[in-house]
Amino acid sequence: MPYRGGRELEQVYRRAQEDGFALVASNFAEPNTLLGVLASHEEARSDLLVQVTTGAAKYAGGGKPLAGLRALARYVQAVAAETEVGVFLNLDHVTPDSVDMFIRPALAEGLCSSVMIDASAFPFEENVCATRAVVELARPYGVLVEGELGVIRGVEDHISSDEAYYTDPDQALEFVRETGVDLLAVSVGTEHGVSVGKELALRPNLARAIRDRLREAGLPRPLVLHGASGLSADQVRTLVAAGVCKVNKDTTYQYVYAATAARFLGRNANRILPPAGVAFDPITFDATGADWKPDKKLFDPRVVGKEIQAAIRAVAAEMIAQVGSGGRSIYG
After folding, report:
1. Active site residue ranges
2. What is the pTM assigned to this prediction?
3. pLDDT tens digits, residue range 74-103?
4. How many domains is the chain partitioned into structurally?
């Protein structure tokens, strides 16, 4: 199934709204996370939405965000050609100052299915203006646009806030009406980064009120949940039932990736690292004064990479179950 664009993604969201499920939007910056979530979504027959931030693109491009975005997007497109579910790519948390260097070329080169413009830290009118400009920019390409209203506490990529500001339903309607956004990210008590779900002051009734307010005005929009890592399965299901159709996940994958690598290296440290006090030259493989050699069956990065992919796959399967997207691919 080839990589899909905004028009197909719009169909996925429409079905999610009608049937009461959500997409897990999975952030990634390199292949192991992508391949892990892709394998899980194929197995579950769930359409896959992956996300790239400017920071992830900068990392993948060796400090050059656009080069990194091209590399990551084309990698997604290549592996998607061999799948049987829809695969989509969203540009996540792009700030207004990065529109020209990130969103414009991505649209022109067909690198994304949707874009998220994050002007939520600006005053309302400035947020509206910046978001509407991206909507107008993306429309000719058939690319969906996600805006954000309200502020979510914590750090995401290079964007941070020490306080949370809940989204007001009436202001949400005004925002959608004035910008024309396709999706609306709302603040209902989640946090970016490492947060414990049971400690959050979640307001699912607020999400429901925003959804209903938009519906009543004839402007139904899929709601987006940022900062979803740390939530329990019950919390996620409650928010999906309240109108959330896109659940962002990043921190969870980052932790699972690092923890899996740490456990692997901990188990195999004495076969990868030289004994204490032994000088080892990785070019000549000479361990001065010791009869020791590293085990290539373990230090080959593909070995730990496969373990990371398997761990990501297992976590992604649980997330798919929580949002209810399994078996709901629009491609059968």
Report:
1. 92
2. 0.91
3. 999 999 998 999 999 999 999 999 999 999
4. 1
